[in-house]
Specification:
Bound molecules: flavin-adenine dinucleotide
CATH superfamily of the largest domain: FAD/NAD(P)-binding domain
CATH architecture of the largest domain: 3-Layer(bba) Sandwich
Strand content: 25-35%
Strand order of the largest sheet: 22-23-26-25-24-27
Radius of gyration: 23 Å
CATH class of the largest domain: Alpha Beta
Low-confidence stretches: none
CATH topology of the largest domain: FAD/NAD(P)-binding domain
Helix content: 10-25%
Distance between the termini: 57 Å
């Protein structure tokens, strides 16, 4: 049996390893254009900042392909010939398969404003994006970073760290409303200000203005008409599936370009599966969208491999957890944390029966939010100190109540040497 995996990101690599674990003799070929080895995309910012070499972000040693007997095909897939069961490589050559997994990830959503096309407007998703930004980001320059999500704040941080003046333009009325409520977002915005970032909230971009040399000279804000002067623009308004090469293949794609899959992550052609950022999957609320996240890409890769091996598979995202950083502000989330802002910038009401325990730790950039359904703890959103998600998830599964969780919370704290031990402050309230 010849398995071909397109993409050596987390979905593709975890699928390859899961296949090998179960079938020692299978042929496994991995096709990738970006890099010879699997690296951690969330760690790209540290590579840009020079804090890590790319090699340091590779989760496995460089002998892995050889040891596992994986065939490496380095190059860009130009199209997919479903009838002939082959990937068609740029510059010629075909890669045939018995079973194929497409795990081709995503790319930066292109900037949609007038003036976006041309030099000096950057995304930050791939190694090539990193190289292009690296070549243009000069100390003393001025950058406008657009987009209030995790990638935007990372790019703001690395550009600031390099010595650029950074204006961070966010369309929503508060930063990262997918994950933070007004109190937490205010804390993060205050923290960014502390680091010298000029944060503009509730600001829509109208246009990127270019100078006589064709390079960006300013970003015009729709509401105020202000022209924010800049030498480069980083557009961090999300990602889109990297599936352009599938046009004309007959494989069903969603409106947004994600590969339609069934519960077992099978695509719509025989013996073809999809996993990771490029796959359209069913969410807990029944909607269908990709899950552009590291842990879900890993889980989908493993589930797709089991399905390719003939197991009965029904992929559903497990209890959610994630962690990231806003500058040096740690963030850990686990379980159900309601989204607080609608796409049209209107505030979303809290779901029925949901209450929240919240405190901001006095004198520190630190807060804890615990989400309750009835008396049961169902989610955590913890800012400004480091937490181990595993006990948090167990307590959710064990249906623990708030008093018990507050008593045991210090057991989930990672960095007592840097932050004070968790305590309940008079600022705490449940509402
Ligand atoms: C800056 C940044 C920070 C992030 N931080 C977080 C975080 O904190 N937490 C979190 O959960 N998620 C984070 N993410 C998202 C996470 O990195 C992705 O969800 C995850 O990497 C997706 O994995 P994947 O295997 O689906 O795709 P990818 O990692 O994108 O891999 C896709 C692979 O497909 C290959 N490929 C694509 N098209 C072709 C083609 N035509 N021909 C040949 N090869 C091709 C590429 O070379 C690559 O090997 C972050 C992403 C970015 C960009």
């Amino acid at each position: 049996m010849r398995y071909v995996i397109l993409g050596n990101g987390v979905a593709g690599m975890e699928a390859a390893l899961a296949l090998r674990r179960r079938d020692e003799t299978a042929q496994v070929a991995i096709v990738s254009e970006e890099h010879d080895h699997f690296f951690s995309r969330p760690a790209l910012m540290y590579v840009f900042a020079g804090q890590l070499a790319l090699k340091d972000t590779e989760p496995y040693d460089r002998g892995l392909y050889e040891r596992m007997g994986f065939e490496r095909v380095r190059g860009r897939v130009a199209s997919f010939d479903t009838a002939a069961r082959a990937l068609v490589m740029e510059g010629g050559g075909r890669v045939g398969y018995d079973r194929l997994l497409i795990a081709c990830g995503s790319k930066a959503r292109p900037a949609p404003w007038p003036g976006s096309d041309g030099p000096g407007v950057h995304g930050f998703v791939t190694l090539r994006d990193l190289e292009r930004l690296d070549a243009e980001a000069k100390p003393g320059g001025r950058a406008v970073v657009i987009g209030g999500g995790l990638i935007g704040v990372e790019v703001a941080e690395i550009l600031k760290d390099r010595g650029l003046h950074v204006t961070f333009v966010v369309r929503e009325s508060w930063y990262f409303p997918l994950a933070l409520d007004t109190r937490e977002a205010a804390l993060v915005a205050e923290h960014m200000g502390h680091h010298g970032i000029d944060v503009r909230l509730g600001a829509n971009v109208a246009e990127i203005l270019r100078g006589g040399d064709g390079r960006p000279r300013a970003v015009r804000i729709a509401e105020s008409g202000e022209e924010v002067a800049c030498d480069l623009v980083a557009c961090c308004i999300g990602v889109v599936p990297n599936t352009g090469f599938l046009a004309g293949s007959g494989l069903a794609l969603s409106k947004g370009g994600a590969i339609e899959t069934d519960d077992a992550l099978r695509a719509t052609a025989p013996d073809v599966w999809a996993a990771g950022d490029c796959a359209n999957v069913t969410w807990a609320d029944g909607s269908r969208r990709p899950e552009p996240l590291w842990y879900t890409a890993r889980d989908q890769g493993r589930a797709a491999a089991a399905s390719m091996l003939g197991d009965e598979v029904r992929y559903r995202r497990g209890t959610w957890y994630n962690s990231a950083k806003f500058f040096d502000l740690e963030w850990t989330t686990a379980g159900f944390v309601p989204v607080t802002l609608n796409f049209d910038n209107s505030e979303l009401p809290r779901p029925d029966g949901v209450r929240e325990w919240f405190q901001r730790v006095p004198g520190r950039f630190e807060s804890q939010r615990i989400v309750l359904k009835g008396e049961r703890v169902v989610g955590f959103n913890l800012l400004g100190s480091r937490w181990n998600h595993e006990p948090l998830l167990s307590w959710i599964h064990e249906r623990r109540e708030l008093p018990w969780v507050l008593k045991h919370l210090p057991e989930a704290q990672f960095d007592e040497e840097f932050s004070p031990r968790f305590a309940v402050w008079p600022t705490a309230s449940v509402a």
